[in-house]
Write a structure and sequence with these properties.
2 domains; Rossmann fold; alpha/beta; single chain
Length: 348
Amino acid sequence: MRILVATDAWRPQVNGVVRSLESVAKALLDLGAEIEFLTPQGFASIPLPTYGEIRLALATTRAVSKRLEGPVIDHIHIATEGPVGFAARHYCLRAKRSFTTSYHTRFPEYIAARTRIPESITYAVLRHFHNAGAGTMVSTASIANDLQRRGFKRLMHWSRGVDHAQFSPAKKVVMDLPRPIFLYAGRLATEKNLEAFLSLDLPGSKVVAGDGPSRKALQAAFPDAHYLGAQSSDALAVLYASADVFVFPSRTDTFGMVLLEALSCGLPVAALPVPGPLDVVGSSGAGVLDNDLRAACLAALDIPREKARAHALTYTWANSARQFLDNVILAKSGGQRRLIAAPSGFPA
């Protein structure tokens, strides 16, 4: 089966969406499915307002249609709700082709945090976008339940995986910093709620890996933390394996790929009890979820690293790829799948 994935998120961006798409495409080869990507590459682009590091492709419907009409494609999956995604959706509706979508990012909350646009307006746009497809793939039951309450239909489960060889406790090195070391890795942006972590009174050291529009402001407000900038996946694996606790203060992530990467390196998690951590960590004992983030950070120090690693081993890209392909086959057959209510009901 040849599947085309239309996505606005692509390299040089380094984020969970890009890593997920690349990893699933690789795993799908073993299942007899071939993935092609329609990305912003080859299109002119402009900076995303308020977030210049991300560029929006000037992808017209005509240009995208030409690319989709060329090769023989068995199914089209639209991964993002950007210019490429909207153009691909328009083509599918005009050509009366079945397609699926996926919900990776809580744009309504992100946009509301940066502008005065109410979440209700953005959710209405996204609902219109996704409900036109044969199914919308969602990573967790918590997010699915929220979307269902907001009128999203035909929701399908598509979890994530992690490369256990790349993200391994064996990558540990001795870091020349006072311990314990509390690590955050990810985008430095308003919606990540980093102030909640950096303002905590914690022993040892706070380390921040990543870049984004909030970096300068955070460095000015919290100069005692160690800011490492953007890191490659291999460098992140070393940081995960060498730190003592991974701190995830976000309230808006739909999953949090970095959670799995940290756990796979044997790094316990401290996070808030919100969607993402609730689904990935839950009651596994691999982390501590508490509205008192400082208490969660200190309690996570007592979690055995072997327990964190064991939980991460239940998530594989092979399982993720199988879920994705099953969803595509179901959508093509005209079937429907709804996510069950309880997050614990989903296998990794």
